[in-house]
Amino acid sequence: MTAEGEWVVACAADALEPEAALRFDHGGRTLVIARSPEGDYFAMDGHCSHEKVHLADGIVDGYIIECPKHFGAFDYRTGEARVPPACIDLRTYEVKVEGDNVFVKI
């Protein structure tokens, strides 16, 4: 996770249902924002480490997001690559909800 940075609005809190994800682009970076079954929000780098496919287009199941191209999978809470061909972990980012918005620390 980032130690320093600025908080930016990533999306409206009601933009994501539990077990869903969306793409967020900011400052030349692509992130994926995911919502857990309990309703918590998480953010990590948005491209699969295998072939740079957008993870927001993949399937979210529990705490796992699956790449839509070769079905590699990541734990969106930790960025850990969980299913090959994904083998490089992704960076995660701090997230907070204030009012009606989800913020990510970039």
From TrEMBL:
<dbReference type="InterPro" id="IPR017941">
    <property type="entry name" value="Rieske_2Fe-2S"/>
</dbReference>
<dbReference type="InterPro" id="IPR012747">
    <property type="entry name" value="MocE_2FeS"/>
</dbReference>
<feature type="domain" description="Rieske">
    <location>
        <begin position="8"/>
        <end position="104"/>
    </location>
</feature>
<keyword id="KW-0408">Iron</keyword>
<keyword id="KW-0001">2Fe-2S</keyword>
<dbReference type="InterPro" id="IPR036922">
    <property type="entry name" value="Rieske_2Fe-2S_sf"/>
</dbReference>
<dbReference type="Pfam" id="PF00355">
    <property type="entry name" value="Rieske"/>
</dbReference>
<dbReference type="GO" id="GO:0046872">
    <property type="term" value="F:metal ion binding"/>
</dbReference>
<keyword id="KW-0479">Metal-binding</keyword>
<keyword id="KW-0411">Iron-sulfur</keyword>
<dbReference type="GO" id="GO:0051537">
    <property type="term" value="F:2 iron, 2 sulfur cluster binding"/>
</dbReference>
<protein>
    <submittedName>
        <fullName>Rieske family ferredoxin</fullName>
    </submittedName>
</protein>
